[in-house]
Amino acid sequence: MNAPVFDNSYARLPQRMFAPVRPMGSPDPQLLALNAPLAQRLGLDPDWLAGPDGLAMLSGNALPPGAAGIAQAYAGQQFGHLVPQLGDGRALMIGEVVAPDGARFDLQLKGSGPTPFSRQGDGLSWLGPVLREYLVSEFMAAAGVPTTRALAAVATGGIVRRESRLPGAILTRVASSHIRVGTFEYFALRGDCEALRALTEHARARHFPQAETPAAFLSAVVAAQARLIALWMGLGFVHGVMNTDNMAVSGETIDYGPCAFLDEYQPDKVFSSIDRGGRYAYDQQPHVAVWNLAQLASCLIPQLDEDEDAAVAEATRIVHAYPQLFEVERDRVFPAKLGLQPSDNARKLVARLLEQMAEEAADFTRVFAGLSDGSARAEFRDTARFDAWEQDWRAAGPDQDVMSRANPRRIPRNHRIEQAIAAAVGGDTATFDRLRAALSDPFADRGDWDDLAAAPLASERVTRTFCGT
User: Fold this and answer.
1) Backbone φ, ψ for residue 307 (5° rounding)
2) Which residues, in sequence order, are bridge partners of residue 106?
3) Among residues 106, 245, 263, 275, which one is catalytic?
4) How many Å apart are CA 88 and CA 71, to the nearest integer?
5) Model-level pTM greater than 0.90?
């Protein structure tokens, strides 16, 4: 059994870009979940991770040789309001590993104790947010959405004080990097051109090596975000807090706090308990992405051209390409959910179906999954209207294989996640384990998991989620 071998490129950047941190440690750690397939993808030894030395690392009790132990600095626009310093307040990077195929990944502990960026917080996490992120991020990966991943969940044996006393836990998160739009904002706000150039080159080489200039790097980030948000929309995913510190330049979904998936299709649906204005509603996510990318572009202007006016014009051109890029990606995602190739007719069929779904508050996932087996009709009250749509849709010649690969039968239903968390807080992780298994294969038609595909009863409906602090 072998410990991880680290090559910490981010830690070799100027030290003002991060702070050295040691985890607080766990009084009585217990391994709740280990993602063995992901470990193997990273070139890590699952047996070592499950053993005493691995548990010591995953619980923050001991970092292995070569580990970095750093918290990254970043700023952020939170609900449109600039916060000059945020940073990893309850997370630290263990280090970077290089997978067998040469890809580089961060290993990060979330909930391992305070850092210099904790802003008077305790830096801890309770069990609920850890299990939520594990379930949702691994579902997203199984559904083909670029995302951070969950390598392990550990119960610390400690108590976290929030509104009540709750069991503590640590998530080991994996990402191609944790560089955010807010990371660039942090140094731009300080006028630190040297750090910005170093960060841009590092992120360019790590994520978009084909992009040879800062302008090409910005274009690559814009394209990656267009694809990502289109995939979110196709799953009915609502991130909840699309602040600039929660947008990774890699194009991966990051920071699953008050996130949720639509049950009934309501385009203006908001889940976050703190989003009172609907800024991050489901249908606003493409627009927020443009706003966030404009903040990144403003940070890169000094690197785009020596002439400021020319640099601003170049940045504007690149960001203004986003809406068209998004529409192209959306026209791939939604027609595929009908088993169709992009076309004017496919767009019209998508629009007609979504319009009826919105008017009748039909279940987003069950409608699309039900197109394959004929059960979608039962999700509507106005069946005659649906029948007319279905006749036109079938005339377009849908491909059942395309459709089955585009429409998961199960999503991380909000009420199921809450049930799994409640059971785990009571000491029973069987509900979590079953849900985890079902979400790891979300497209499979499995009768023993049919209950997990059901829409919530009125008494089970979750309308608000909360930040995972």
Assistant:
1) -85, 120
2) 96, 175
3) 245
4) 5
5) yes
Q: How big is the CA angle at 397 (ends 396 and 399), to the nearest 5 degrees?
A: 130
**Residue 396 is encoded by which pair of tokens?**
């377009």
What does the block give as tokens for 293? 């990318």
Tokens encoding 421: 């968390």
Report the 3 state secondary structure along the chain: CCCCCECCCHHHCCHHHEEECCCCCCCCCEEEEECHHHHHHCCCCHHHHHCHHHHHHHCCCCCCCCCCCEEECCCEEECCEEECCCCCCCEEEEEEEECCCCCEEEEEEECECCCCCCCCCCCEEEHHHHHHHHHHHHHHHHCCCCECEEEEEEEEEEEEECCCEEEEEEEEEEECCCCEHHHHHHHHHCCCHHHHHHHHHHHHHHHCCCCCCHHHHHHHHHHHHHHHHHHHHHHCEECCCCCHHHCECCCCECCCCCCEECCECCCCCCCECCCCCCCCCHHHHHHHHHHHHHHHHHHHHHHHCCCHHHHHHHHHHHHHCHHHHHHHHHHHHHHHHCCCCCCHHHHHHHHHHHHHHHHHCCEHHHHHHHHHHCCHHHHCCCHHHHHHHHHHHHHCCCCHHHHHHHCCCCCCCHHHHHHHHHHHHCCCCHHHHHHHHHHCCCCCCCHHHHHHHCCCCHHHCCCCECCCC
Looking at the DSSP bridge assignments, the partners of residue 166 are 160
Q: Is the pLDDT of residue 120 over 80?
A: yes
Among this protein's residues, is 245 annotated catalytic? Answer: yes
Q: How far apart are the first and last CA of the chain?
A: 35
Dist. CA 47–CA 40, nearest whole Å: 10
Computed on alpha carbons and rounded to an integer, the radius of gyration of the chain in Å comes to: 22
The Cα 82–Cα 355 span in angstroms is 36
pLDDT (tens digit per residue) in 374-408 = 999 999 999 999 999 999 999 999 999 999 999 99
Nearest in space to 33 (alpha carbons), one of 172, 128, 175: 172
Position of tokens 């690149």? 318
Q: How far apart (Å, rounded) are the C-alpha atoms in residues 406 and 154?
A: 33
pLDDT tens per residue across span 248-293 = 999 999 999 889 999 999 999 998 878 878 899 999 999 999 999 9
